[in-house]
Amino acid sequence: MTMKRPRGTADVTPGDIARWRYIEDIAREVCHLYGYGEIITPTMEDTELFRRTVGETTDIVEKEMYTFEDRSGRSLTLRPEGTAPTARMYLQENLYSVAQPVKLAYVGCPFFRYERPQAGRMREYHQFGVECFGSADAAVDAEVIALACDFLHRTGVDQLQLGVNSIGCPDCRNDYREALRDHFEPHLEQLCVDCQRRYEVNPLRLLDCKREECGDKAAGAPSMLQYLCGECAAHFAELREHLERFGLPHEVDQTLVRGLDYYTRTVFEITHHTLGAHDVVCGGGRYDGLVEVLGGDPTPAVGFGLGIERLLLILEEEEIELPSVPGLDCFIIYIGEDAKGAGLQLLQELRSEGISADTDYLERSVRAQMRFADRYPSRFAVLLGADELEAGVVTLRDMSDGSQQSVPRNELTAVLRDAVR
Predict the structure, then answer these.
(1) Helix/strand/coil for 234
(2) What are 102-114's pLDDT values in tens digits?
C-alpha cells in the first residue's frame, strides 16, 4: 500500500520552499524593525497549560486539540496556538526580570488542531506571531497591529480589512454576560448543543459560533462597548487614536470576540476577501490576565497570530509574483573516469568558497549532463575532460548564451566568484 501524508497536512517541496522562506524573511525583517526577538517553544506542552488558558468551553479545548499520554502517563498536547506557550516561557525563563516590555516573535512554527480540512484551514498549520509582555499602554496594541499590517503590505498584499473591538476587563464583562443571556434566552432551544451549554458557562462564546442558526440569533445582540468601564472605554478610545496616527484605517466590529478565553480589552482581526468564509488571515488582542493565571504576577500583554498557509493562498489568488528556488552557480560536467575524480575534488573546492555547485551521479552522456545542467537551472557549466586535465584548464560555459572560455584550473574559483556576485 502506498503511504500518504495524514489528512489535513501538506508537503512543502523544493519548488515551494522559496515562497515560504520569502515570507519568513520578511517577518524576521519586520520584527527586527520593531524590536521583537525570535523565539522557539516546544511543539508539545502539558495539556493543562491550554486547559487553564485557552478555556474549557472553547472549540479548541473541547474538540480540536491533539492530546496524548506519553510513556510516563503525562498528558501532553501538540500546541494549538502560540500565546500560552510564550507566556509559559516568559515565566519559566525569568523574562519578567529583564527590562520591560519584552517583545517576542515566532516565525513559521507549526501548530495543530483537529478541524475539517479545507482551503486555508489545516490540521497542521504554520504561523508568524508576536507577543509583547509588560505594558498596558494602548500604543503597544496599536504597534502590534501596525506590525502585522506592515508585514502583510511588504509581502505584496493589499485590500486588507482591519476590524477592532474591546471586550473589556473581567469587571465590566459581568454585566455584559447577563445582557447576552437575556438576549439569547428566548432563542435558547434554537441554538446548537454547544451554544446551549455556552449560554450557561461562557455566553461570550455565543458570539463566536460559526453555525448559521446561531449566527442569526446573534444579530441584534447588545454590544460590549455599551458595558465598558471607564478605564476600558478610555483604553479603546486611545487605541483608535493611535491607529489613526499610524495611518491604519479600521472599523469597529462589535461582534468580534475572538475564540480564546484569555483575551481582555483589545481584540482585532485582519481579513481578506479572497479567503471566503474563513477570511481571517491575522487575529489577536490583549490578554492582561494570562501570566497571572499561570502563576506569575499581573502582567499586561498583547499579541497576534498570522496564518502562513492562508497568506500563501492570498498571494496566489492575487497573482503576486514570489521568488522561485534559486538555481546553481555552476554544474560540473566530466568526461571519463579520471575527469570524474578531478571534478569531484573541484566540486568541493567551489562549495567551500560559497559557490553553489553540483555534478552528475548517474553516468549520463556529456549531452545529457548538459541538458540536466540547463534544466537545473545552472548559470554556468564547467566541462572537464582528458584534454582539460592535461592542459590544467577547464572549459567554462555560460548557459545563458552558450559562450565558452578556457580558464586555468587554479583561477576558476576567482572567475566564478566575480561572475556570480
Answers:
(1) helix
(2) 999 999 999 999 9
